[in-house]
Amino acid sequence: MLSIFITFFLFLGGYVYAASVHASKTLVFYDERLDQLDSFSNFLSDLKDREYELDYYSANSTADIELFEGENRLYDNLIVLPVKGKHINKLVSDKTLLQFYNDGGDILSVTSPSAVPDSIRLFLNQLGIFPSPKGYELVDNVQGSLKIDSSDFRDSRICAAKYASSITLNGASSALLDNREQIFPILAAPRTSYTKATGKDSWSVGSQGFLATAFQNLKNARVAWLGSVDFLKDEFYGNNGNFVQEIAKWVFQEKNVIKSVDASHFHVDGTSYDEVPYKIKDAVIYEVGFSEWNGEKWVPFITDDVQFELRMLDPYYRLTLKPGRQKDEIQYYTTGEFRLPDHHGVFTFETDYKRDGFSFAVQRDVRPIRNLAHSEYARSWDISNAAVYLSSIFSVIFAWVIFIIFFITASPVVNKPMNTNKKNN
Amino acid sequence: MTPKPKKITKTPSTASSAANTVTQDFKEAYRLALKSYKEQVSSNARLKLIDIFCAFLVVIAGVQTLFMTLIRDTFPFNAFLSGFIICVGQFVLLISLRLQVQEPFEGVPRNRAFGEFIIASLILHFTTLHFIN
């Protein structure tokens, strides 16, 4: 009886709390000299409630820490709280971080004005995020203290705008952002703020700087950077908790995770490319399925902005797909019937779905489209214009036959006087 | 040689009278040509037949060219070419037949000329029909 109960609860727990799309073994870097772990207890317990397996490592401990064992990544997620000193640069170099990230690990990085380790900075710089160096602090002399307004909010796909208005921060650093499309800015610095450091120029002015930003690479591994440790702290958790949990859910792949599956294309009558290769101007249909991870399982992903491209260097077609059938967890989108271009060559059938805050879903299939064989062109008698030319040809031939008949039956006159007449002329 | 001294004597006179003489000459030449042509044709029904066919070919070729110009598209170009070429080819064959009907070439009797005309025409038609597509 007891074992049944245990199995039931285990099953229930596993079912309800399997929040992330991948496993959730997480390493938390922190620094005892700056903040005790206790000051993040709300944040960490929220993660634990969602079945995160947390390992802790304090930067001032002498123990060694490895993110990899040989080629194998030991952790799925990495949380880097503000860390002081140069020890961390040797312990976890920017190269190691990049390797971890390229391998698919997700990273939540938090820096504060007094603690911006070089390895973290170099790593973020490679992504196009440029946090202010150590010593720079965001101040707002107009409003007196940092007040986040909902107009500073930049992205509602990662985190709902209602969570941003209550954010309270004591101190923060800001980051400048590159304008690459993998960066999704979340929260800009207040308009009246600037970054100050004694004896140096300001790092960013007004909403030029950012307090929180997200990054997603082409393998869909995610990074989020927060400019203040106050986001996570217990004392402001009532105000910031929802915001930071939404970001944690996003960065650790609990939400906005989509995938495209089953991209296929075929003739209108259903025969595939393999059976009958395409030739120019064939009528074909393209369809692709999308699924979204809802925290427990894959469900159909409903949207209206999936586009299909048929390209050979340039897109010959760019069609917005219409929602079609739904099968289990997959929503299919279809072009409907369309005609291949009057141009032969090697074409790519492609859906390149890249939306801010969502996993990038790319499907490509390269197929040659052949030209017409000599026997496949329209015959002249199928072309209405040719009727004029054809009828003239046949009328000439018909007239020729009539001419022959008349010519033979006409009396052969040998006109000698006329001939002599002509000679005289 | 005779017109030359004539012209020299004419040069002092006005340009209009010179032009007048030219048109006069031309009219005269045209009248004579027409007259001799009518004589020639009325005396030989076959020549008349050949000329009617030639005129017909010119009309057909003109109709096709006009059509192509009007729709501003050469699209079934092969069909147009074969339609036009059959007219031109047939015209050429007819003219060469006409020359021989009128006055046989040396060593080529009229009947042989006619036979050659038929064979050449058949080859032309065959080629044209295969050139349509």
Explain this structure:
Chain A is α+β, with helices and mostly antiparallel strands and 425 residues long. Chain A has 8 helices and 22 strands. Chain A has helices at 2-17, 41-49, 87-91, 94-102, 118-127, 237-251, 386-409, 416-424; strands spanning 25-30, 53-58, 68-69, 72-73, 77-80, 106-110, 129-131, 137-139, 175-177, 183-188, 194-196, 210-216, 222-226, 257-267, 283-293, 298-300, 307-312, 314-320, 322-327, 330-339, 345-353, 361-369. In chain A, the strands form 6 sheets. In chain A, strands 2-1-5-6-13-12-10 form a 7-stranded mixed beta sheet, with helices on both faces. In chain A, strands 14, 15, 16, 19 and 20 form a 5-stranded antiparallel beta sheet that branches. A 4-stranded antiparallel beta sheet of chain A has the order 18-17-21-22, with no helix packed on it. In chain A, β19 and β20 form a beta hairpin. The longest helix of chain A has 24 residues, at 386-409. In chain B, α2 packs across α3 and α4 (77-102) packs antiparallel against α5 (110-131). Chain B has 2 domains: 1-43; 45-133. By secondary structure, chain B is mainly alpha-helical. The interface between A and B is large, with 31 and 40 residues.
Lay out the secondary structure.
The complex is a heterodimer of chains A (about 425) and B (about 130).
Chain A: H1 2-17, E1 25-30, H2 41-49, E2 53-58, E3 68-69, E4 72-73, E5 77-80, H3 87-91, H4 94-102, E6 106-110, H5 118-127, E7 129-131, E8 137-139, E9 175-177, E10 183-188, E11 194-196, E12 210-216, E13 222-226, H6 237-251, E14 257-267, E15 283-293, E16 298-300, E17 307-312, E18 314-320, E19 322-327, E20 330-339, E21 345-353, E22 361-369, H7 386-409, H8 416-424
Parallel strand pairs in A: 1-2, 1-5, 5-6, 6-13
Antiparallel strand pairs in A: 3-4, 7-9, 8-11, 10-12, 12-13, 14-15, 15-16, 15-20, 17-18, 17-21, 19-20, 21-22
Helix pairs in contact in A: 2-6, 4-5
Chain B: H1 3-10, H2 15-43, H3 45-71, H4 77-102, H5 110-131
Helix pairs in contact in B: 2-3, 3-4, 4-5
